[in-house]
Specification:
By secondary structure, the chain is mainly alpha-helical. It is built from eight helices and three strands, in the order H-H-E-H-H-E-E-H-H-H-H. Strands 1-3-2 form a three-stranded antiparallel sheet. Strand 2 and strand 3 form a beta hairpin.
Length: about 190
């Protein structure tokens, strides 16, 4: 399988970025190749394209399957398994976010809940527990907000993201309006 230079560049970069995001470099490269491929490809084609051993590709594909980031397909008359990524980039984003939440955020929240239930034995533990509570509340708030965002349809999500700093201006305006109203004894300004 001949890999064009543009694809090679993307695959190499994605592998390097993946290692910075906590993903094995090989897994990142496999995913990048699948993402830009015009059609589903099998493990032998992936190994040939990337110069990886077949066993390394198999382990990478199993990792991607566990993250629900690849689709497995079979074709009539061919016993091999073919792999591709979802077509919708938003579906990929949502799946990745859900999996990271399940693997990273939820265990942290569980640990923090347990720590907050402990009786502090010293002032240092009391201080640490208060800081953990702040972290717990922040993570809960962000998680709740992100869950709400995840439930939006793609069109609404895109419109929201394009608003950017305009959202901040609206929030600042409503905050100013609220302060004016409270200074006037609850009467409208």
């Amino acid at each position: 399988m001949n890999t064009p230079p543009l694809v090679q560049s993307f695959v190499l970069h994605f592998g390097e970025m993946g290692s910075r995001w906590g993903i094995n470099r090989t897994v990142g490269q496999i995913y990048a190749l699948l993402y830009v491929s015009e059609k589903p490809i099998n493990a032998d084609e992936i190994a040939e394209s990337l110069g990886f051993s077949r066993s390394n590709v198999s382990m990478g594909l199993k990792e991607l399957e566990s993250w629900r980031l690849v689709k497995l397909q079979h074709f009539p008359g061919d016993r091999r398994e073919y792999f591709s990524t979802p077509d919708d980039v938003w579906e990929i984003f949502r799946t990745l976010a859900e999996e990271r939440k399940k693997r990273e955020v939820e265990p942290t929240l569980t640990m923090l809940r347990g720590a907050m239930m402990e009786r502090p034995a010293s002032d240092a533990e009391k201080h640490a527990q208060a800081r953990m509570k702040e972290m717990y509340q922040l993570i809960e708030l962000v998680t709740s907000w992100f869950s709400d965002i995840q439930n939006l349809d793609v069109e609404t999500l895109q419109r929201l993201m394009k608003l950017g700093s305009k959202v901040t201006k609206v929030l600042q305006f409503t905050q100013s309006l609220s302060k004016m109203t409270s200074r006037n004894g609850g009467e409208e300004a």
